[in-house]
Specification:
mainly beta; 13-stranded mixed sheet; 4 helices; 45 strands
Length: 626
């Protein structure tokens, strides 16, 4: 790129860093006359004040100082409203003697802007450590909502002490993705073993990455998909590999607790921003693939199509839904810049092959009981990098894919795809929804989602009224169902669903395929009566396949119980599926996390998880047994 372009971007970066305040506003109906299409500069698109773009001519010390300040700002901002994205233009950052080293805090995306991960080469470290809630309680269990992708990292811990120099640490849990990375130079550790204990972690997701030796350590569960690993150690309960070159064998399950699938049956890598050789911004949209393993970029640019940034409506908080929908109707794609968007009417995605891409964990919050986002029955629509929050008034659903009560059958070659789409009910504010994610279309791919009814955060109760806070959370943060799948041939790679009040996952479509499922039952049912089905069955299983389904496959799954509000509560089964040869569960388990009971793993089969065996999973290798 030209020196002039670097200087122009550098000036813009200074403005971003010094004036980076959250822009937030309600997305309400616009006046009758819609705004004209917004012009987009292909060389320097206006991504707003919450996006920082660095070029290689900016001094490493300046970059590191600014990113250290951002990490300090976001380090404990679990329930905050700031959203940030940090991008690196192609080139070299850091050297052996002066590495670029920084941490990544909440609601922060870090990514390269190259066509290939190797186009952005960082010599240094990009890390997440435990949060030490007290001096002797250091954990990664709530290290949520952060992203790293599309770059090469030569790990260089120059200046760190002996323990910190031993690896690049990525101690994270849910709603955290690593994609399109090329890491070398030292181990990658998915736990932080350098702080005081207990060092627990509950992640996570990696895709399309070439990795060194990986220390999984205390990670309870993890999915690694379509990647290469030099080696892998440890695993607590449920480590799943799909299409991974170098993955460990799963012989002897559950010791070690590995589930290895040689090829991923259906995959589509997440769209990504990149800058071409002439300096123009584009979004690369990878094509869907079947029966694959290894990274998508080993032999060149990931197969797919490139969309010029000028074909996107670049939205900012405060833009009206009417303007967004008008742009979508005219054939524009949608790019959501970082921020919190209050959504009082539905964003409708109707046209085939439309891309909706969120930057920096862009968050859509329902207002007035609205459905924030609907995807129509149209092939090839991709929604990626978006978080959807329930609002204070009950929404029927947060994201609906396909027409309710009968989505159209769509071809399998170009599936509707959801990548890194996260849902939240409660947490920073009271939330209410009947269902978080409803999938009605056929041939949908869900590639990494966390669907979370908050087990902590704002409870919506008066702490002085003498009423148990968990009881009031149960009555105020309403999340009846997490995921309901009505469509046929729906595939999910990395399905994390937690704490819903009835069905966490209810699968009614035929020929569903799920690779890694993680669930915690709700912590807060006040009484057994509140957690009993109308027919008298004790509790709701964490994963339910409808009795009419004839074909379904689940690989690598866990349902956990922690009834901290009332430890006497019983759940009869972790899983419930019809007894038919075409429905198969492989490597499943339940576990007690110190409160509550799950009597059986699935359909009356498998051991009881309770306080007599806390932390000891009850495993089944296959159901039904061969």
């Amino acid at each position: 790129m030209t020196t002039h372009t670097h200087h122009r971007r550098r000036t813009r970066i200074a403005a971003v860093v010094t004036g980076a305040t959250l822009v937030a506003g309600a997305l309400m109906a616009a006046p009758a006359s819609a705004a004209p299409p917004r012009a987009v500069d292909p060389f320097n698109p206006d991504f707003g004040p919450n996006v920082t773009v660095y070029s290689p001519d900016i001094p490493v010390d300046q970059i590191e100082g600014e990113l250290d300040a951002l990490a300090d700002q976001q380090r404990d901002a679990e329930m905050g409203s700031v959203r940030r994205a940090v991008y690196f233009l192609p080139g070299q950052y850091g050297t052996a003697d002066n590495p670029l080293q920084f941490d990544v805090g909440y609601y922060t995306e870090v990514a390269g802007l190259g066509a290939s991960p190797t186009d952005v080469d960082i010599n240094g470290s990009i890390e997440v450590y435990n949060r030490c809630l007290t001096a002797d309680n250091c954990i990664a269990l709530v290290n949520f909502w952060r992203t790293i992708s599309n770059l090469s990292l030569q790990v260089n811990s120059l200046g760190d002490d002996g323990c910190r120099a031993s690896a690049n640490f990525w101690a994270v849990s849910q709603a955290v993705s690593m994609r399109r990375l090329d890491i070398s130079g030292a181990n990658l550790s998915l736990m932080d073993y350098c702080t005081a204990g207990p060092q627990y972690a509950s992640g996570g997701f990696i895709a399309d990455s070439r990795l060194p030796f990986v220390v999984s350590g205390s990670q309870q569960q993890w999915l690694t998909r379509n990647s290469e690993v030099a080696g892998w150690s440890n695993g607590v309960w449920n480590q799943v590999f799909s299409g991974v070159v170098g993955a460990p064998e799963d012989a002897g399950f559950p010791n070690p607790p590995y589930t290895t699938i040689d090829e991923t049956p259906l995959s589509r890598e997440k769209p990504y921003l990149y800058v071409d050789d002439e300096g123009r911004y584009n979004v690369r949209v990878p094509e869907a693939q079947t029966d694959t393993r290894g990274v998508s970029w080993a032999d060149g640019m990931t197969a797919g199509r490139s969309i010029p940034i000028t074909d996107f409506f670049i939205a900012k908080p405060g833009d009206s839904v009417k303007d967004i929908n008008n742009a979508l109707a005219r054939g524009r794609h949608l790019l959501l810049t970082p921020g919190v968007y209050d959504i009082a009417q539905t964003i409708d995605v109707k046209r085939a092959d439309t891309v909706v891409l969120g930057l920096g964990h862009a968050t859509l919050t329902a207002v007035g009981g609205a459905v924030p986002l609907e995807v129509k029955d149209a092939a090839g629509i991709v929604v990626a990098g978006v978080t959807i929050d329930a609002g204070a008034e009950l929404s029927p659903v947060l994201l609906r894919v396909g027409k309710a009560k009968g989505g159209k059958p769509l071809g399998a070659a170009n599936p509707i795809t959801l990548s890194d789409v996260y849902f939240r009910v409660g947490g920073p504010h009271v939330g209410k929804t009947t269902t978080a994610l409803e999938v009605n279309s056929d041939n949908v791919l869900i590639d990494h989602t966390w669907v979370w009814r908050g087990d902590h955060g704002i409870e919506g109760f008066d702490p002085t009224d003498g009423v148990n806070g968990d009881n009031e959370r149960w009555a105020t943060n309403i999340g009846t169902n997490g995921v309901i799948v009505n469509g046929d041939n729906v595939t999910a790679t990395g399905l994390f669903v937690e704490h819903f009040q009835k069905y966490n996952t209810l699968w009614k479509g035929e020929s569903g395929r799920v690779i890694l499922y993680q669930n915690e039952l709700p912590y807060d049912p006040p009484t057994q009566a509140d957690w009993t089905q109308p027919d008298g069955t004790l509790g709701y299983p964490g994963y339910v396949v409808d009795a009419k389904v004839k074909h379904h496959r689940l690989d690598g799954a866990g349902v956990y119980v922690f009834n901290q509000n009332n430890p006497s509560i019983i759940t009869a089964n972790g899983f419930s599926v019809p007894e038919t040869p075409g429905v198969q569960l492989h490597h499943i388990m339940t576990v007690n996390l110190s409160a509550g009971t799950i009597q059986h793993v699935v359909d009356g089969v498998g051991g009881q998880a309770d306080n007599t065996n806390t932390g000891v999973p009850q495993y089944l290798v296959d159901y039904p047994a061969p």
